[in-house]
Amino acid sequence: MNIVTACGMLLVLAAALPVRAAGPIVILDGNAPGRTFEGLGALSAGASSRLLVDYPEPERSRILDFLFKPNYGASLHHLKVEIGGDVNSTDGTEPSHARTREEFEHPRPEYFQRGYEWWLMHEAKKRNPRILLDVLQWGAPAWVGNRNFWSQDNADLIAAFLRGAKTHHDLDIDFCGLWNERPHQAAWIKLLRQTLDRQGLAKVKIIAADECDQNTMWNIGKEVLADPALAGAVYALGAHYPHFRSTPECVRTAKPLFASEDGPWRGDWAGACALARAYNRNYIEGRMTKTVIWSLISSYYAILPLPNSGPMKALQPWSGHYEVQPAIWVIAHTTQFTRPGWRYLDGACSLLPGQGSYVALRSPAPSGDYSLIVETVDAQAPQTVTFRVTGGLSPQPLHVWRTNEERHFAPLADVPIAAGGFSMTFQPRCIYSLSTTTVQHKGQAAPPPAAEFPCPYADDFESSRPGKLPRYFSDQAGVFEVVRRPDGPGQCLRQVIEKKGIEWQPVHEPYTLLGSANWRNYEVAADVRIERAGSVSLYGRVSANAQTADPPQGYCLTVAADGRWTLWAFKSVLAEGRVAFAADVWHKLKLCFAGTRIRAGIDGATVSTVEDFSQHSGMAGLGSGWNTALYDNFAVQPVTGPDMVNLAQGRPARASSKWSDAYDARFATDGDGSTRWNSAPGKMAGEWLEVDFGRKVRFDTVCVRQFDVRIHRYKIQYAVGGGAWRDATTGDAKDRKNWTSRFVPVEADRVRLLIESVRGNDPQGDTPSVYELEVYDTAAAPPGHE
Questions:
Q1: Could you tell me the pLDDT band of residue 780, with boundaries at 50, 70 and 90?
Q2: Helices (H) then strands (E): counts for the chain
Q3: What pLDDT shows up at residue 7?
Q4: Residues 70, 74, 80, 85: is their CA dihedral positive or negative?
Q5: Selected catalytic residue, list 38, 211, 261, 772
């Protein structure tokens, strides 16, 4: 007889069972001690929900139902949102309700309509009035505290946001964090508590400290034990990506412990398995009673960082297409079977001997309802577990739901309670929920088919509301809002931020993006007007946002108020000059891409025509310096040009190693910008990624789209048949996420990327990782033309 201990307690003696058990024995004791469950949630921040608000009905409502509607889909208990600070917070900028001291001191109702987080909280509450609301800052406007985040100004800014939520939206915010993933200041936490209490916000609970450094993230526990005033200011201790662990000091505080941001940054089956582990083991190993994942939904362009971070994808408001990924149903395995206020039963929360875990929770209601969530995602064989039910728990049969890779959230046959217990065999690589409750439901909806972003495309901004973000544009730095035209009737777009804020991370000058990563041959044009002084920009073929102070990886035509213009390819100057140009006057900018030919125009005149293939496809956009600027009559239209074919797409690929099956080499040639190859842990220099064309082809260009900035020195090599590898070129990625290598045309049936060195020395953070390896024969294409 195999007797299992859970949470350091002996569960049961073999003689206590009416029948001989084949596996572990678990006591489900309704009177067992355990912490109070505070729910599962998700985080809308970093502009991760940007495109969701632009979805048409009924698709938008169906997506929201899958996220928030009780007993339908994810059925989230908790929604956390960003307090916008007009700074980039991962995949874009979220607007502030007080971007100047004047706006802060003299607030208007329309300031509290900016962005989309207010709308999202409304929609969540509409579907689930019990959902808990939480807020957190990533940065703050430049005026705050003379650029000191830890200031009275900032405490007052947070209080104004919380009051505005109630005054203008009738939203009661339950929780408030500090500064996302930055070292905290205990004195400021106490200042924030005093400020909230003084302004009638005593019910808002503070979560500290939202840090992600594995060495320091839980240090707040020691400080709380040593400082009664700090302990009084903080409701719960929170950490980001804790990997199931807290500290003994945190547990000793007796405060709730939260994984206040967590998740695998993917919603596919691998991501679903990671969530199943985290939801159970965060409590089993770390005593965390709430887990909040980033992101709520992947609703941002796929060229931006971490393109599949959420349990759903909603990247195409123009088509209405969305994807309900497996992770939604893993969330449902806890949320549809429990509720905040239920209690963990510590004697029935443990790891399985054959890989996996289980947790049990009971309702506080007299009915004695309870649920078990069991995951076997790493198990290789079935495991039979025997459960004894006691301590006032319901004797009703258990309703069983299961998810595996092939079938998600499927009901199975009920399990009756006989002689005070039951046994069940759990299959490997599954998630199960067993419950005496009967409210569960699997929502169903058929999304429209996917479609490319429409081209031609035009926007004169007349259909948008003043003060709101224009449809489909995604601000990466600065904020671009629709305003009334200052020179007459109608509307236009305005970049409104004149100073960098207190940044979460360094960013480039203001710019906003729109369109398709697959756009190749097209013309983008816009009317532009610099207000007073500064510069204005037009972007095209943008293939990546480096999430740094670097410019986006694409082409850019920038013109200053003195008429000086520059045509850029990422950081490289392709051409420059000077034209007659002036501030406070409307001008026309144009960029045309046809094959390798790029043409720039200002006010109807061509100022430069160059040949370049460093950026062969990508999105369009608008930009400025740190100055206000106006835009109107934005338009993109296709032009005739050579069709550059990616010879590697869909071809077999292999690599020297892989992190896991979810990061196999085949993902580097699948044409999907959200999947990638990653070498194994610790495998860096000397790793390689190879593509087999299946026949001899000619090529002269290789484009690499990598995750993060990791690869440094590299070689592009080719081989014929079983012959030796030869060097086509050797290069340096020069701190770029995406780069293009051109060389003398070669003919071969195989090509490979050989990594000679990487940035840094961290084997977990710097292993090579490639979204797409693309191969082209540009020499075969005729020169581009309009």
A1: confident
A2: 10, 44
A3: 33
A4: negative
A5: 261
Name 641's bridge partners: none
Res 2 pLDDT > 80: no
Q: Among positive and negative, which fits the CA dihedral 451, 452, 458, 462? A: positive
Q: What stretches of 216-362 adopt beta strand conformation (E)? A: 236-240, 257-262, 290-294, 312-316, 321-324, 343-344, 350-351, 357-362
Whole-number pLDDT of residue 641: 84
DSSP string, 209-232: EEE--TTTTTTHHHHHHH-HHHHH
The per-residue pLDDT for 782 is 55
Give the residue ranges of DSSP H helices in 69-219.
101-105, 117-127, 152-169, 186-198
CA angle (642 as vertex; 637, 647 as ends), nearest 5: 115
Structural contact between residues 391 and 418, judged by C-beta atoms closer than 8 angstroms: no
pLDDT band at 739; cut points 50, 70, 90: confident
Query: CA of 228: how far to CAs of 196, 209, 430, in Å?
Result: 18, 16, 45
What is the rounded (10 degree) CA torsion for 115, 506, 474, 512? 120
Which residue's entry shows tokens 């309670």? 417
Indicate the helix (H) or strand (E) that contains 388: strand 383-390
Q: Is 38 a residue of the active site?
A: no
pLDDT above 90 (res 674):
no
Cα gap 681→683, rounded to integer Å: 6
Across-strand partners of 385? 424
Contacts 24+ apart (CB under 8 A), 721-729: 721/749, 725/752, 725/754, 728/702
- Among 21-30, 542-551, 580-589, 729-738, the minimum mean pLDDT is found in 542-551
375 is an active site residue: no
* 236 SS3 class: strand
What does the pLDDT average to over 676-690?
93
Catalytic residue, candidates 82, 181, 481, 690: 181
Q: In angstroms, rounded to a whole number, what is the distance separating the alpha carbons of residues 533 and 551?
A: 21
Q: How far apart are CA 274 and CA 57, in angstroms?
A: 32
Query: What SS3 class is residue 528?
Result: strand
Phi and psi (nearest 5°) for 272?
-60, -45
- pTM value is 0.90
Q: Where are the beta strands (DSSP E) in 628-780?
A: 629-638, 653-655, 677-678, 688-706, 713-719, 726-732, 738-755, 769-776
pLDDT of 482 strictly over 90: yes
Cα angle for residues 462, 468, 469 (degrees, 5° grid): 85
Neighbours of 330 (CB within 10 A): 30
pLDDT of residue 614: 85
Distance between first and last Cα of the chain: 79
Q: What are phi and psi of 207, to 5 degrees?
A: -105, 130
CA 654 to chain centre: 28
Cα 752 from Cα 704, distance rounded (Å): 11
CB 502 within 8 A of CB 142: yes
The letter for the amino acid at 355 is Q
Q: Rounded to whole angstroms, how far apart are CA atoms 589 and 569?
A: 17
Retrieve residue 319's tokens.
């088509």
Strands (E), 243-289: 257-262
- Measured at the CA of 164, the angle between CA 183 and CA 113, to 5 degrees, comes to 100
330: three-class secondary structure by DSSP: helix
Q: What residue type is 281 in one-letter code?
A: R
Give per-residue burial for 371-393: e unless 16+ CB within 10 Å, then b: bbbbbbbebeeebebbbbbebeb
DSSP letter (8 states) at residue 367: T
Residues 252, 1: Cα–Cα separation, whole Å: 35
What are the structural domains of the chain? 39-344 (3.20.20.80), 457-638 (2.60.120.560), 653-780 (2.60.120.260)
Q: What is the DSSP letter of 140?
A: B
Rounded Cα distance between 760 and 739, Å, is 19
pLDDT, tens digit (0-9, with 9 covering 90-100), for 444-473 = 999 999 999 999 999 999 999 999 999 999
